[in-house]
Amino acid sequence: MMDTMPRKPIARDAVLDAFEALLIEVGERAATLDAVAKRAGVSKGGLLYHFPNKEAMISSLLERMDGLAALDIEAMKAAPEGAAAFFIKSSLWADTPLDRVFVAATRLAEVAHEETRRRFAGIQQQWLDVLAEEVGPEMAKAVRYMGDGLYFNAMLEGGAGDTEAKASARSADVGALLAAVERLRN
Amino acid sequence: MMDTMPRKPIARDAVLDAFEALLIEVGERAATLDAVAKRAGVSKGGLLYHFPNKEAMISSLLERMDGLAALDIEAMKAAPEGAAAFFIKSSLWADTPLDRVFVAATRLAEVAHEETRRRFAGIQQQWLDVLAEEVGPEMAKAVRYMGDGLYFNAMLEGGAGDTEAKASARSADVGALLAAVERLRN
DNA sequence: GTCTATACAGAGATAGAC
DNA sequence: GTCTATCTCTGTATAGAC
Prior knowledge:
homodimer; 186 residues; DNA-binding; transcription (chains A, B)
């Protein structure tokens, strides 16, 4: 019974993790098959056994994103502090699996990858819907763009540069944003 | 007298315009020397006469960005509707020279280009300073992130996809953001 | 100043051994 | 399932003609 359960091959996940990390740290261009394989500890041929081509690897990453985003939306709906406050807090880069896959996917979206853009749009719309229930459609947009701005800045810094210092600066900013959200709620 | 004035060669600017346009429309990876040369109507060799290598082309683009950003900061300070409202309005994609060079540079920043990131940080700080004078340091951050979010979304769409429809949707969003700014001001 | 031709490296992908 | 070897294409850059 137990061994009939579909089990995810660990090598496959390791490759996907490596791809994600390289996208975050060095950008789309440097996330080559060679680099991903090396980081995952396999050969290029080994990598291409799991993912027949690069596009397949991207698709799997987007699947991962959608799965994690769905969990996030549920948590947002159930958040005791309210959806808006939850949204702002979770827009801060915290190196969570969702944060990571989001920033990684953003690197692909910049590169005119249509499928990635579509997925983003879908998730953003869900966020907006939940926010609108709490603060109304108008203020939901303000909150949404604040969160997007936070993400934009996390993305611009990526894994390079003074992540520690800048991250704590943005962390302080969250306080200001939460105060702003509080004002908008009334 | 007139002909002793340093005059910018037009071919050089045409190359830079082409590079910028390709970054916006098809992303960093597709903005190759071949593609830029073709779009500018010169050969690759001709291009490389003006810019000895690709990095030189990037540097010139960043110079352009800093120059236009400086003008924008001045306009923001002098804006009759206030710096915050001016900032939100001008964060909307309007295909201005500053908008264009900004989105183009963002494509480079995603690719872990350190110099580009530094320039961005400098400009953002200037914006924040001006905003803080008007609405205080806390609310300035809220306004700033809203503007960044607007830019983030413009960038995600780039020149591809339904720019017309989505752009007008974001245009409507600006109304909501201005209302939010008005609330935050009080 | 702008062109063509070419060198050179890196990237994605295939073939086939183990 | 994972490896090495290799093919092909594309991108940056140089050399030198015009």
